[in-house]
Amino acid sequence: MSEITIIGGGIAGLTCALGLQQQGVRVKLFEQAPRFEEVGAGLTLSQPASRGLFSLGLRAAIEAMADIPVRADVADYLTGMTLPAPDRVQESREKGDIPYFYQIHRADMHKILADAVLANDPDAITLGTRFEKFEQDADGVTASFEDGRQIHSTVLIGADGINSRVRDLLFGAQAPRFTGQVAYRFLVPYADVEPFMRAGPSVNSVGPGRHLLRYVLRHGTLVNGVAFVKTDSWTGEGWSTPADNAEMLEKFKDWNDDVKGLLRNAPPSGTRKWALFDRDPLPRWTIGRVTLMGDGAHPMLPFLGLGAAMGIEDAVVFARAWRETADRIKVLAIYEATRRDRANDVLLASRRQGEINQAPDSDNAKRYAATNQHLFDYDPTTTPLAMV
To answer: Which of 19, 132, 141, 276 is the most exposed place for a label (fewest CB within 10 A)?
Structure first.
């Protein structure tokens, strides 16, 4: 019998597994994908995320793989000129704080975490196994999988993403909500687009109904681009479908030459588009010995760059709560009470930021950014636990 069963092998689930392992907890993590592959694209590690990951001993590994921008700018969609805004990157340097954010390939961050978990226990992760249901009683939780296996543990954590099966079983199935936004994502070699990077290595270009974020990865060798466009409907057959350069250029035809040059050079075979969905905040995450984590509890839109941070924060706080008491039901109560309001506030703020980024007056992006600064001051390693 393991102490913890985690459903979902994303960043939240792996971070939680690592944090618990470092306390000597036996963890079993199940992921339905048959292998961890080179998937995804850029990922921003904000200060809350970095504080949490560094507390698990991962700073050297992250800094070996990540890029630290000298500054991050907001640019006007017509002229390409940067807009006046607080330089949070420089402010962090002047205060002697950790970098305001790191930018890293999602696959690299995922590998860092998975390697650390497997170094502690080569049998901790099981791939290619689809979770089906759970049953719980006073003694523990039994998770059942489609291949017929059953795993009994003290606690079960659903870190299985926006389409969480654990969430559906806890609170009833409810489809995620289409947000009216479609995102185009691509990676392109820096050498292919260097002439169009004049505004700097990390820039968010904002305009009416659209915005485009791009920044460098893998020590300046790749550019990660993601373009967001408002639309009335989603007609794709899946959540991620191929997109071509002509389609993107049509959406941004009136934008500055640097944006169009970047889009023109996006690799046709690797550019994808997907609809952005989210869910309303939940009033609770836990029933008995089963709880939710990361996007399973609070799926985040990407407009504040705090999506990964929320799952990392959850995991670090959960591991801290585990140390506080041997009463595992109380652990889940402490975890939820400490995290729920923070995560739900960020969920709603991320929605609002998407509207601000695409407002007719692009200066709104600058004004609203200042009001969100408090969200980045959070430290999951020191925030007081709610001792319920």
So the answer is: 132
